[in-house]
Specification:
The structure holds two protein chains of two kinds. Chain A is an alpha+beta fold. Helices cover 31% and strands 29% of the residues of chain A. In chain A, the strands form three sheets. Chain A has a six-stranded mixed β-sheet, covered by helices on one side. In chain A, strands 7-8-15-11-10 form a five-stranded mixed beta barrel. A three-stranded antiparallel β-sheet of chain A has the order 12-14-13. In chain A, helix 7 crosses helix 9. In chain B, helix 2 crosses helix 3. In chain B, strands 1-2-3 form a three-stranded antiparallel β-sheet. Chain B is an alpha+beta fold. Chain B is built from three helices and three strands, in the order βββααα. The chains are: A alpha+beta, B alpha+beta. Chains A and B meet through helix 7 and helix 9 of A and strand 1, strand 2 and strand 3 of B.
Chain lengths: 319, 86
Amino acid sequence: MSAATLRLGPGGKNGRLGELPLTEVAALLSDGRLALQTGQLIARIRSTLPDVAQSLHRLYAQHPFFIDPDFADFHVELRQPMNLRRWLRQQVEFLIDGHVPFEPLPREQAPAMLEWGLNWALASSAHQWLTIHAASLERNGQVLILPAPPGSGKSTLCAALALRGWRLLSDELTLLDPLSLHAHALARPINLKNESIALFRNFEPGMSWGPEVYATTRGLVTHLRPPADSVARMLEIAPARWIVFPRYQAGAAPLLTPRAKVRTFTHFAENSFNYSILGELGFDAVGRLVQQCDCHDFEYSRLDDAIEVFDWLAGEHGE
Amino acid sequence: VIDHRDSPGFLWRCWADGAVIFDRQYGNTHGLNRLTAEVFRVWLEAPSLDQPAICQRLAADFAEIVDLPLAVAQARAQLQTHGLLR
């Protein structure tokens, strides 16, 4: 990265996107000159869509940015496809390196599609890490991994912990160095759906949100800006320590139970984006990960109960 | 981490509840319960053993299983389904 491409803010530190006026962000995006850093990755983004500029300006306000960087890990674009749909029900498509990897979505989903597209880009190409479909957070120098199927309350729990003292690494993609088993952060916005949205507007008033859109397959979705401290510390890595499979169950008392290692391993083998690509390295990494972590299932209904349990885990059993 | 069962054909990771095996030829991963993993280990060591002989080898470690011959037969069937017994 050349120094000339890095916009410096007050005190000579990296500039943060929120320091730019929205009009300048929109102009840079429109020209394809803006790149954002999330963790160790840099994504160069092009879009003329005003809601994408607004969403980025709000959700990535704390993130470092670059103008005309010499290098970016991903070159992505969001645009309206040049088909008849642009006159009827408008759509938006996601491009990476000029290619369209999946079908267009309704136009109003553009900001959310950028997040999903970046997830896809990362999961399909960042093979320097073992990339697991799981949330991850850090406390006292140790990392908690929350793998779970959709609907289990993973993102909800992740958001609650991130707003109550745990450092957010990622709500969706856990990145592990396959040799050291240290987790790397992305510190990107947290994807929340349906009832969780209203829950968090009360849980932590004053947070910044992306636009709410109705996506047919997911219901109502939006993104929550990551905590500033998580973004400021996004280059800090830490070893994996706990693997907890959460399950929201209405009315349930919090219950943390040991989980079998073989079951945990097979879940990771089936829910890592690049386990098969890594071959024996992936097998060895998951084996050591499961061996070194305490593995649990966790049933809960109230977020305050869950936070108490995880704080206890980090405090009493974190040594 | 090297497991003492690792071989040119398979990598093993073993825990109290069973084992996970990586087939180095095909790149497949198999999660096996403790009995099935032990049946596979015995078969790798002595492929010519018949079922009564396998049961005899495992009887002391799996005394809690009431019908061991049936359980071993099921384990062998599972290993065949996995493509591990060829």
